[in-house]
């Protein structure tokens, strides 16, 4: 997986630099890349894009036909470049790296919040407010439920993990008693 990310990074970097110079370019490119990545992730699309019976222009035309958002000339050129270099199926990794660059530029980060139980909006806002103070960043929460945590929450922001779940506390107690 790291290899694919390494190959995708220069495309995301170049696109980010170009989009940053456009008025409102980052937000619109972020949305478009999310859609492109979603389409490129489909098994049927992956199969079609590797079909040796299709040449480059046919792949570009087929892929563009699957996109709902109207494409600018710049977006069409980007897709054609990816097809020409055999990198179209790297769109999920390109989109992921582009989003990380955008978040860094905006001073934001994604907070993966996993809870043992469903959180309502007020609880999520309260958790996010505390986390924003701790990290000094504007956070975008992505909340999931995992009953195996038993209670509490596990939060991942970038490469930092805060685990206050009952499952983690039990594991720490087990390790302490075993030592």
From TrEMBL:
<comment type="function">
    <text>F(1)F(0) ATP synthase produces ATP from ADP in the presence of a proton or sodium gradient. F-type ATPases consist of two structural domains, F(1) containing the extramembraneous catalytic core and F(0) containing the membrane proton channel, linked together by a central stalk and a peripheral stalk. During catalysis, ATP synthesis in the catalytic domain of F(1) is coupled via a rotary mechanism of the central stalk subunits to proton translocation.</text>
</comment>
<keyword id="KW-0139">CF(1)</keyword>
<keyword id="KW-0472">Membrane</keyword>
<comment type="similarity">
    <text>Belongs to the ATPase delta chain family.</text>
</comment>
<dbReference type="InterPro" id="IPR000711">
    <property type="entry name" value="ATPase_OSCP/dsu"/>
</dbReference>
<keyword id="KW-1003">Cell membrane</keyword>
<comment type="function">
    <text>This protein is part of the stalk that links CF(0) to CF(1). It either transmits conformational changes from CF(0) to CF(1) or is implicated in proton conduction.</text>
</comment>
<protein>
    <recommendedName>
        <fullName>ATP synthase subunit delta</fullName>
    </recommendedName>
</protein>
<dbReference type="Pfam" id="PF00213">
    <property type="entry name" value="OSCP"/>
</dbReference>
<keyword id="KW-0813">Transport</keyword>
<keyword id="KW-0375">Hydrogen ion transport</keyword>
<keyword id="KW-0066">ATP synthesis</keyword>
<keyword id="KW-0406">Ion transport</keyword>
């Amino acid at each position: 997986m790291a290899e694919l990310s390494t190959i995708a990074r220069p495309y995301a970097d170049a696109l980010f630099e170009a989009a940053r110079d456009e008025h409102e370019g980052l937000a619109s490119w972020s949305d478009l890349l999310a859609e492109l990545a979603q389409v490129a992730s489909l098994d049927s699309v992956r199969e079609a894009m590797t079909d040796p019976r299709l040449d480059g222009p046919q792949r570009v035309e087929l892929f563009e036909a699957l996109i709902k958002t109207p494409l600018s000339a710049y977006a069409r050129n980007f897709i054609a470049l990816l097809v020409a270099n055999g990198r179209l199926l790297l769109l999920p990794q390109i989109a992921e790296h582009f989003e990380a660059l955008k978040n860094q530029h905006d001073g934001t980060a994604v907070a993966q919040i996993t809870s043992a139980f469903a959180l309502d909006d007020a609880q999520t806002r309260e958790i996010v407010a505390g986390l924003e103070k701790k990290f000094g960043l504007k956070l975008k929460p992505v909340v999931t439920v995992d009953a195996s945590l038993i209670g509490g929450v596990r939060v991942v922001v970038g490469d930092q993990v805060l685990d206050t779940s009952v499952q983690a506390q039990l594991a720490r107690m087990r390790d302490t008693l075993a030592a």
